[in-house]
Design goal:
Blueprint (H helix, E strand, L loop, with lengths): L11 E6 L3 E10 L2 E11 L5 E2 L2 E2 L2 H19 L5 E6 L5 E16 L2 H22 L6 E13 L2 E3 L6 E15 H13 L3 E7 H9 L9 E6 L4 E7 L2 E8 L3 H12 L3 H11 L4 E5 L5 E5 H26 L7 E5 L8 H9 L6 E3 L8 E3 L11 H12 L4 E6 L2 E6 L6 H7 L15 E5 L2 E5 L8 E4 L2 E3 L10 E5 L20 E6 L2 E6 L2 E3 L2 E3 L10 E4 L2 E3 H8 L8 E4 L2 E3 L4 E3 L3 E5 L5 H8 L28 H4 L17 E5 L2 E5 L24 E7 L2 E2 L11 E8 L1
Parallel strand pairs: 1-6, 3-19, 6-11, 12-17, 17-18, 20-26, 22-31, 27-36, 37-41
Antiparallel strand pairs: 1-2, 2-3, 4-5, 7-10, 8-9, 8-10, 12-13, 13-14, 15-16, 20-21, 22-23, 24-25, 24-26, 27-28, 29-30, 29-31, 32-35, 33-34, 33-36, 37-38, 39-40, 39-41
Helix pairs in contact: 1-3, 4-9, 5-6, 5-7, 7-8
Length: 712
């Protein structure tokens, strides 16, 4: 509130936007006294509100502007902020219990209590949403603490006590979005910003039932024009809220029908009924008429009976199906003669225990305008101002990605709260991982996580922010969605189970065999990119046939093959450090043992073998000419047929392969230079005719080969 004139305390502007009239109150609080600096009342010129619901926002806003202008003139201050109250039309309540446990016993602070209350409101809102099957959006417009708990025992005030667990029983009240939005729009069009929103019965009880009386089981009934709002106290707290959609307007309508007058004239007749025995008026025909007070009371009697019956039933419902000890009545609708007596009869309590509350509950209210009369009509307007000091439970508006949204003001709002209210996807706030890769290795499930993407980019009013950045009314929030990272990928060669080579001994020579894995039954090299749901079996062996193919040796079909001293065949498996020997002659066990068990450091050569065992080996080595001319036996290998040249393209360069009848992928490295030295963070990609290629697959004339390093 922008002040020009100075006052001893901060000015608070409260508006009671009623069905029949709008009451504006400006005042300040010092100590336990509230000073009303000025108060103005304006009645609606038309029925712009019905049953507490705004029907014509423009007309209501115009009346608010008139009240605001009159008050600004009276107090000499420009009014910009306002406190308002909502009527309990379609009121719903939720009662919850929630607790907070500390890691260790410690002193409870005001911040702890605030956090506990906020947790209670959030819990109530979640419960309400679960139980509310309607498509209508509801807002929490107020709450009351029923009782606090310290270490599971009831306590009046938690602050400064030492506790391990604190808890609260709390009543939260909810109203439909259209009720709340109508109030905010009408106030906004009048150039005001809401700083506190409460419920009318909560506001009224601030004045009508002092805290010292709340130990008693008392009902407060605020009889307005469109609604009768009800609250119940017991054990020092407010324990229930309710309403009925019937109040003073029902009486006015009965008068209008009987006297044949418009609603405004009927309202005036109703008011004079409490002061005069005979009321004069003009009917809609322009004729002068009079009506007796007793006649009017009889006309209104059915409406009074219906209204008090409904109020009584609601009080009993809220109070556990029983009556209360006493009832305080405030508001203009309850001033009609006979109302309090009839309500007492419905409740079954003594008539003197149902009474209008006005001047007698305003001992701590001081009116600086001396002509102001303390009246039950003023209880709720003043209570709206006092609610400002009790709790801040208003709404704030912010702009989120160019959309105006409304947030319940907990005084701890952050960007994440606005994102949730705007239904911004939660996953779009945080870095997202690319798709995970799932596969099996030797029968065990394995998962590689995708890479993290970039976090969302957030600004508040153009400045960098994050999801925890506090926000306030009218902030402009922009959130750019987070991104997903790259999908998980891995080559077989990067698996911890994979080792680059298998070292075996073939005919006395150490041979390093590149390791392979079986993927879904197919052999793949270490450069194979694992795919989703692949079943990988790490092969730690070669068959003799695979060794022969790798060494590019052509064995005579009559040769004998030995693996670790035992006669074998081409399908025998050869593991790490196994020995393999092939020869034309069948060896005796003693000969094989002599070959396999040479003493350490003693080099075994083919010359060491018996004369009936012939040399064999890598055809590329060819053996010595002398060995080839031995008289016995004949050559251990068949003479190779002449090779067939094959033309292919490697990285766009023509390459001719020579010396073999057929070729596999690894053969091209004999004719095309490519540096295979491992590079950190890099891996080799091999492709044939635009698809991934494996080292052992065959080549054909004209194949287009690509070999290059790329990042892991």
């Amino acid at each position: 509130m922008e002040e020009v004139k100075k006052y001893p305390g901060k000015l608070v502007f409260g508006l009671d936007i009623g069905t029949r009239s709008i009451v504006g109150t400006v005042g300040y609080k010092t100590g336990d006294q509230f000073y009303v600096v000025a108060q103005r009342i304006r009645e609606h010129e038309t029925r712009a509100m019905l049953d507490g619901q705004i029907h014509d926002i423009g007309r209501v806003s115009m009346t608010i502007s008139q009240v605001k202008t009159e008050l600004e003139t009276a107090v000499g201050v420009r009014l910009t902020d306002v406190c308002i109250a909502a009527a309990g039309r379609v009121l719903k309540t939720v009662t919850i219990h929630t607790e907070t446990a500390f890691e260790e016993e410690r002193e409870v602070t005001e911040e702890d209590i605030y956090a506990l209350d906020s947790k209670g409101i959030e819990t109530a809102y979640e419960q309400f949403n679960r139980e509310n099957s309607s498509d209508v959006t509801f807002y929490c417009v107020g709450y009351s603490v029923v009782r606090y708990y310290m270490n599971n025992y009831v306590i009046g005030n938690l602050e400064s006590h030492k506790a391990r667990i604190i808890g609260v029983d709390l009543i939260a009240t909810f109203l439909p979005e259209d009720v709340v939005d109508g109030l905010y729009k009408a106030v906004g069009q009048a150039g005001l910003e809401v700083v506190n929103l409460t419920l009318e019965p909560i506001a009224a009880i601030q004045v009508a039932i002092p805290e010292m009386y709340r130990m008693l089981n008392i009902a407060l009934v605020d009889v307005g024009a469109g609604t009768s709002d009800i609250s119940i106290t017991q054990g020092g707290s407010i324990v229930a809220y309710g309403m009925i959609p019937m109040a003073g307007d029902a009486l006015t309508e009965a008068v209008a029908q009987h006297c044949l007058v418009d609603f405004v004239t009927a309202e005036q007749i109703k008011r004079e009924c409490g002061e005069k025995e005979t009321i004069a008026y003009k009917d809609i025909m322009g004729l002068d008429q009079t009506v007796k007070r007793d006649e009017l009371l009889e006309v209104m009697r059915p409406a009074v009976e219906s209204m008090t019956k409904q109020v009584s039933d609601k009080i009993k419902e809220l109070n556990g199906d029983k009556s209360v000890s006493a009832v305080f009545v405030v508001g203009g609708g309850g001033k009609i003669p006979g109302y309090t007596e009839k309500l007492a009869g419905e409740l079954g309590i003594q008539p003197e225990r149902v009474a209008l509350r006005g001047e007698e509950v305003m001992a701590k209210i001081q009116f600086l305008e001396k002509e102001t009369k303390k009246d039950s009509l003023l209880v709720t307007p003043i209570g709206i101002c006092l609610s400002f000091y009790e709790q801040s439970n208003s709404f704030v508006f912010v702009t989120f990605n160019n959309t105006r949204i409304k947030l319940y003001d907990t005084a701890r709002l952050a960007v994440v709260d606005a994102a949730l209210q705007a239904d911004f996807p939660n996953e779009s706030l945080f870095p997202r991982r690319g798709a995970a890769l799932h596969f099996m290795v030797d029968g065990h499930a394995r998962m590689i996580r995708g890479e993290l993407g970039e976090a969302s980019v957030i600004t508040v009013n153009g400045s960098p922010a994050d999801i925890h950045t506090p926000i306030h009314a009218n902030d402009i929030i922009c959130v750019q969605e987070s991104t997903a990272g790259a999908d998980a990928s891995m080559e077989i060669g990067r698996l911890p189970e994979y080792h680059a080579i298998i070292r075996v001994e073939v005919n006395e020579k150490k041979i390093d065999l590149p390791k392979f894995a079986a993927v879904n039954g197919q052999l793949q090299s270490g450069f194979y990119d694992i795919r989703e749901n692949d079943r990988i079996e790490m092969l730690n062996f070669y068959t003799v046939r695979q060794i022969v193919e790798f060494m590019d040796v052509i064995l005579d079909r009559n040769m004998n093959i030995y693996v670790n001293n035992k006669l074998a065949d081409l399908e025998t498996k050869v593991y790490e450090n196994f020995s393999v020997l092939w020869t034309m002659e069948q060896m005796q066990l003693s000969d094989v043992e002599q070959y396999e068990n040479k003493s350490p450091g003693e080099a075994a050569t083919y010359a060491d073998l018996p004369d009936d065992v012939e040399e064999g080996g890598d055809a590329s080595e060819g053996g010595s000419e002398e060995a080839g001319k031995r008289e016995k036996p004949e050559a251990s290998e068949k003479t190779k047929e002449p090779g067939v040249p094959m033309d292919i393209f490697v990285n766009g360069t023509p390459v001719t392969l020579r010396g073999k009848q057929s070729y596999i992928f690894v053969d091209l490295f004999d004719f095309y230079h490519f540096d295979l030295t491992p590079r950190p963070g890099k891996r080799i990609t091999t492709k044939k005719n635009k698809r991934d290629a494996q080292y052992m697959e065959p080549l054909t004339t004209g194949d287009m080969i690509e070999i290059y390093w790329r990042d892991n």
